[in-house]
Amino acid sequence: MATRITLIHGDITVQKVDAIVNAANHTLMGGGGVDGAIHRASGLRLREACRPLGRCETGAAKLTEGFDLPARFVIHTVGPIWRGGDRDEPRLLASCYHSSLQLAVDHGIRTVAFPSISTGAYRFPLSRAVAIAVEAVQAFLADGPPLEEVRFVCFRPGDAEAYYEEFQRRDIPFGEPD
Ligand code: ADP
Asked: Which of 14, 74, 121, 156 has the smallest CB count inside 10 Å?
C-alpha cells in the first residue's frame, strides 16, 4: 500500500485521524507541552487509562483510547532528552517513530499523526529531529505496511519549513491532509 505523507501546521488534538501520537514522559500521567494539551482535550479518562500501563521506557510506545478526542486512539511514546547527542538520542528518537508505527499497524490503525517528538522541553535540535523522524518513517514505510497516511503536525510557526526541506532532500512526495 502506498502511504500518503502529509504535513500540516496546527494542533494535534484536533486532528481527525485514527491515532495521534503523544510525546509523553515516563510516567504517562500527563505533563506540559503537547502531552498536557492531549490530556486536557481527551479528558480525565485518558489519565485513568494510562495508570495501569505503568512506566514507558524511552523509545517505546503504548496505546490507549482517545476518549474525548476526535482520534480514536492515542499512542504514547517517550522521546529522549537531548544531552548533546552522544547519549544514544538519535537511535532512541528513531525508535519512538518505529515503535509508534508498529503499534499502529498491530492495532489495524490506518492514519497516524505525529507531533515533533523531543523538540520542545526535551530540547532536541529541530532540524536533526526532523531528519531522524522523516528517515525513520520512510524506513518503516519501505516494507509497505497497511497505513494510509502518516501526518506530521507542526505546532510552532516555522517548524514546517524543516520538514519541507527534509522531504525535498529525500525526494519524498507529500501533500496536505484531506
Ligand atoms: P518533548 O518533551 O518531547 O520535547 P513538547 O511537548 O515539549 O515535548 O514538545 C514537542 C513538540 O510538540 C514541540 O514541537 C511543540 O511545539 C509541539 N507541540 C506543543 N503543543 C502541541 C499541540 N497541541 N499540537 C502539536 N504539537 C504541539
From this structure: 156
Amino acid 177: pLDDT: 95
Q: Is 116 in the pocket of ligand 1 (CB under 6 A)?
A: yes
Q: What is the pLDDT of residue 9?
A: 97
Identify whether the C-beta of residue 150 lies closer than 8 Å to the C-beta of residue 114.
yes
Q: Which three cell numbers stand for residue 178?
A: 484531506
Residue 33 phi/psi, 5° resolution? 55, -140
Give me 124's grid cell: 532536541
Cell numbers 507529500 correspond to: 174
Which residues of the chain fall short of a pLDDT of 70? 1
* pLDDT (0 to 100) of residue 98: 98
> Cα 6–10–11 angle (5° rounding)?
115
CATH class held by domain 4-169 = alpha beta
Q: Identify the pLDDT of residue 13.
A: 98
- Using a 6 Å cutoff on CB, does residue 121 contact ligand 1? yes
**What is the pTM assigned to this prediction?**
0.98
| Residue-level pLDDT at 155 | 97
| Domain chopping of the chain, boundaries | 4-169
Which residue has its alpha carbon closest to ligand 1 atom 10?
120
User: In sequence order, which residues have a C-beta less than 8 Å from that of residue 176 and are 6 or more positions away?
Assistant: 6, 7, 8
